[in-house]
Amino acid sequence: METITSICPGCSIGCGLYMVESEGEEGRKLRVVHRKVAPMNEGKLCKFGMRLPSYYNREPLRNSVDGTEVDQDGAIEAAKERLKSMNPDEIAFVALPSTTTNEELVSFASLASGFGGENLSFGFERFFRDIPEEAYYAIENGLPFTDVETASKIVLFFLDPYVHYPLLARRILKAKRNGAQIIEVSFTKNERGIADECIVVAPHEFESLREQKALFKDSLIIGELTPYTNPHLVSLMLWLQASTSSRLLLLKPFLNVTGALLMGGGGKGAEKRKGLFEILDKIDSGKIKALYLLETDLTSVLLRGEAVKETLSKLDLLIEQHAFRTPLSELATITLGSEPFYRKHGTVVNIEGRLLALGGESATGLQILERMGNGRSYEELHSDVKNLLGVGSSEPSEFEIAVPRTERKFEVAFLTEFIDSFISLLKLERKEESGEEGYSLWYKTNPFFWAGIRDKRFVEISPAAMRTLGLFSGDQVELALGELKEKVGFKISDVLDDLIVSEDKLAIQPLEGRWSEVDQRGLPTSVALRRAT
Amino acid sequence: MAEEEWEPKILAFCCNWCSYAGADAAGLERRQIPPTVRVIRVMCSGRIDPAFVLMGFLEGADAVLVTGCHIGDCHYVDANYKTRNRYEFLKEFVEELGLEPERLHLKWISASEGPIFADMVREVTEKVKKLGPSPLRRTWKS
Amino acid sequence: MQSKCHLAWATDEEIRNKGANGGFVTATLVSALETNFIDLALVVKKKSVYEGILVLTSDPEEVKASAGSLHGVPINLAQSVLEYAADKRVGLPTKPCDARGIIELVKRKQINLENVYLIGLNCGGTLHPLRMREMAMAADCFGIDPDSVQREEITGGKLFLEYNEEGEEKEQGIKIDELERQGRGRRDACKSCITKIPIMADLACGNWGVPPGEKKTFVEVLTEKGAAILNNALTSGAIAVEDAPLEGIELRKKIEASMQKLAERWKGALDPLIDLSPSERFAFYKEELQRCIHCGACREVCPVCACEEDAKCLGLNEESDAYAVSMYNLIRIVHLMDSCIHCGQCEEVCPVDIPLTLIQRRFSERMQRHLEYTPGMDVTQTPPLNETKLRWSAEVE
Asked: Measured between beta carbons, which residues in chain B are less than 8 angstroms from residue A463?
């Protein structure tokens, strides 16, 4: 029985836990055990954390070249050779920082620049394009949870903590017990009763927020930033912080986004780098011919999982480095197998700014990158990480906030432009009295969603929709978008009449459309809803 | 949603051999039974998992009646002892939960005791009408 | 069998000094492994005073390395015995709540008691590691750097922290009563626990009844298995034993009684529902339980739960039903009314801070009183929910 101190890769909170490996009758067994001394979560875990053994129980990715299994050296050599033979502008490097350590990110970035390209994406570049430099920190840095617990007013901005970031909820509860006022601004009221006041914004009534500015004064605004967040929404939140003397805390759905953003994936140089969706468009148009994916399964992370396979099949060279086999593995020209996240040796930075060490002993993933690149040791890379984070030479403990945030004053241009352009993107028709069309599908994203795992197997609809559709207990509903249809269970919730809320990622996604048009909107989608037969 | 006149929903579990026959007899003898009761027939009251009673309340029952053969008369010898046993747990549970104890009953009813079934349903309906809808019901605002 | 009380200690000086109270428990487990009396020992290895890791080992050296008390590590071992050592000859140190969980699992035929040697430990309670860090750091408490603490001990009603300050070894002790008056101290479940001496184990070991200053463990032999493992340690020369003095036996009883009295007072103080009306209680339960995100942690850590994936609390729970309170929670309450041992693990792992231990305790204490049944004490008692006949008459309304 071996106990490995580890961190959940489900979201940027980075809950501490133990992974316990043992040999049983049925082979190797993994169990997750609560690590009560971990300060970010006090050992508590959400459903995703509790299900880590099954998350880690996937088929390992083997090393292969052109579909033939080879040893790792062979695969690395082939990758190096082929990358060298290409034009730097034609190569892209993508790593969405969920199961990547700081050291791996630094190594990956050097590898990318070593091949001369500027097509490096950690998934969040586009958010820095139109905002002042002084505001970068509000996106790059999070805040310690003690700041949440001691806030006197909290505004939850399109965020249901119990669903999006479960271990955040108890911090807000503590604030509430300390007398804080909790306000919710969302498409749907949180059913677990966390907010004192809820401002329900119908998708076609977003403009009303403009009137409510005073509500936000002197508050802690909590929202999230995902690859799909509409940048105008981000600007709106920044404007609110700047004009209502509030503070903005943006949570992220991948464990090590803070590490990635603070070590070069953030504001500095963002204008030069390409965003994720731009890269995908360039692959579609043939301008980018090679892609190196580090620990990133685009089919599970992106909404349009099928479309991404189409796009990537246009590549001349697809290198996939991952612990597990993914739907992209059969498309990949070269596959490189690394160790599962919990076995890695390395560090990450959580949303609070803690520098957290993983208790594993393996560096396979890191060594692949270094053997292809500069051949540095873990110690050298770790030292680089500490320099980039400004942490100094000592090893910070998990109990300190090693990378604190420095508040800076900034100005963001007035709201109207954002709201107006935002609304113009909302091509949603108001729902007719009765009829199948005009429902708005909104995703309540959560760790299972980003990992491509279906957890709920139902969508939430209003009592009105239930009546309109004539649903009975045990029925299923069918959602339709163009030609695509999907049958799923339903749950009746107190949501707006024409709103459908889903925590699972559904398969009904547009197959057509440019990535930087379709996917950047991050809005509720207009779908049809009917009773499934 | 229009204001509807609330009618209590009573869920009665009846065992195939005794109490269901008793309930049936009450109908045949034209005993007055309010239309509030919904009957679920089980082969034996010992089949009733405490979870069924819980689910009954959660699905919207304002009262749940557990009925079966008299002790000693169980078609399956002594399964109704288990019913009695589980009822002890449910009784304490309901009380601690803060649910009105009048919403849960256990009664042994033989096949010839139709009037007792009818009386019980009538009494419980009256009691529950005064108590109002069960707090365990689902409620949606719209 | 008539229990016999001894004072015992390790003959090996190193073990005697490192282990709590003369190292009897460590020496007994070490000799049991060395003589192949048991295959494995399940121990907790200290990483710091705030953290301990479970180790299942056949290596006596690992057992020696895990010697010493760890009041800041509130782990329950029952599920781990089930998971890793259900059919092996294993010895382990058990707090009363560890032993009670194991006894309940034995009743449910999950663990073979013949193969498990429960070296019971008297327990006054444990602390949550993060609360302990806060106590160490707070200026109005210990006022020291939490990471400078090397050792901790609870003795004579005081929490002692031994720490290193500017190269000097220092020590501070604060009365547990005082800490708890400040709203600090032990876990709530421990404050109100009345099972201080593990009479359901094979041996009950501790320092109550040991003459002050002596590095010895007070050992009560409770079962034949207990006598066997103790004799094994004795004949292999790992321990020395003498009769426990009468004053020691009396003192131990007195300490137990006074701790139980204190626990009874805490029960009332920690219960916010005591004066509430039924409808107020209902509102409390509904409001607290509606936060549940169905992570399943409370069930995973419950020492008493023996169901596997076929559990009814899982199978009958459908989130799409949108019930006022979920079936998962209600079934867990009903199914634990006879068997909850109030260990407090569930509440500690709940990610949305539902006061689960309070809730389980409210339902189960009244049921257990009503049944005159205490779970986790006697392996021959069937859990009442599984009984066909209970003691009262079959009369019903």
From this structure: 1, 140, 142
Question: What is the model's pTM?
Answer: 0.95
Output the pLDDT for position A392. Answer: 85
User: What residues of chain C have any CB closer than 8 angstroms to a CB in chain A?
Assistant: 48, 50-51, 53-56, 73-74, 83-84, 128-130, 133, 146-147, 287, 290-291, 293-297, 300-301, 319-322, 348-353
Q: Are residues C83 and C201 in the same domain?
A: yes
| Nearest residue, CB atoms, B93 vs list C322, C337, C388 | C337
ipTM of the complex: 0.96
Domain limits for position C161: 129-185
For the domain made up of A64-124+256-389, give the CATH fold: Rossmann fold (3.40.50)
**Same domain as C245, residue C108:** yes
Same domain, C11 and C57: yes
The answer to whether B105 contacts C397, with C-beta atoms less than 8 Å apart, is: yes
* Alpha-carbon gap, residue B136 to C282, rounded angstroms: 9
Q: Which residue of B has its CA nearest to C276?
A: B98
Give the neighbours of chain C: at least 3 Cβ pairs within 8 Å: A, B
Banded pLDDT at A27 (limits 50, 70, 90): confident
Categorize the per-residue pLDDT at C387 as very low, low, confident or very high, splitting at 50, 70 and 90: confident
DSSP state of A127: G
Whether C394 shows a pLDDT value over 70: the answer reads no
Comparing CB atoms, the residue among B72, B85, B135 nearest residue C387 is: B85
Shortest alpha-carbon distance between residue C81 and chain B (Å): 30
- Is the per-residue pLDDT at B78 higher than 80? yes
Q: Is residue C394 part of a domain?
A: no
Strand B63-68 versus strand C4-10 pairing type: unpaired
Query: Please, what are the domains in chain B?
Result: 10-131 (3.40.50)
Per-residue pLDDT at A516: 83
How many Cβ atoms sit within 10 Å of the Cβ of residue B129? Answer: 14
Judged by a CB distance cut-off of 8 A, whether residue B103 touches chain C is no
Please tell me which chains touch B, using 3 or more CB pairs under 8 Å as the contact test: A, C
Which residues numbered 79-98 in B keep a CB inside 8 Å of some CB on A? none
Q: Which of C281, C322, C334 minimises the CB distance to B50? A: C334
Chain B residues in contact with C317 (beta carbon < 8 A): none
Q: What is the 3-state secondary structure (H, E, C) of chain B?
A: CCCCCCCCCEEEEEECCCHHHHHHHHHHCCCCCCCCEEEEEECCHHHCCHHHHHHHHHCCCCEEEEEECCCCCECCECHHHHHHHHHHHHHHHHHHHCCCHHHEEEEECCCCCHHHHHHHHHHHHHHHHHHCCCCCCCCCCC
Q: Give the CATH fold of the A131-251 domain.
A: Dimethylsulfoxide Reductase; domain 2 (3.40.228)
Q: Same domain for C241 and C367?
A: no
CA distance A458 to chain C (A): 7
Least confident of A182-191, A204-213, C380-389: A204-213
pLDDT-based confidence at residue B93 (cuts at 50, 70, 90): very high
Is C216 found in the same domain as C83? yes
Give the residue from C40, C74, C72, C69 showing the smallest Cα distance to C57. C40
Point out the least confidently predicted range of A30-39, A217-226, A507-516. A507-516
For B24, other C-beta atoms within 10 Å of its C-beta total 16
The closest CB to that of C334, out of B58, B93, B95, belongs to B93
Distance CA C138, CA C142 (A): 6
How many folded domains does chain C comprise?
A: 3
Question: Do the beta carbons of residue A12 and residue A254 sit within 8 Å?
Answer: yes
Residue C337 CA to residue C341 CA, distance in Å, equals 10
Do C92 and C218 belong together in one domain? yes
Residue span(s) of chain A under CATH 3.40.50.740 come to 64-124+256-389
How many angstroms away from the CA of A33 is the closest CA of chain C?
9
Residue C49 lies in a domain: yes
Confidence band, pLDDT 50/70/90 cuts, at residue A429: very low
Does A457 score more than 70 pLDDT? yes
Residue C254 lies in a domain: yes
Q: Which residue of A has its CA nearest to C49?
A: A37
CATH 2.60.120 fits A2-55, yes or no: no
pLDDT of A422 = 55
Contact C279 B135 (CB under 8 A): yes
User: Given pLDDT bands bounded at 50, 70 and 90, which one contains residue A152?
Assistant: very high
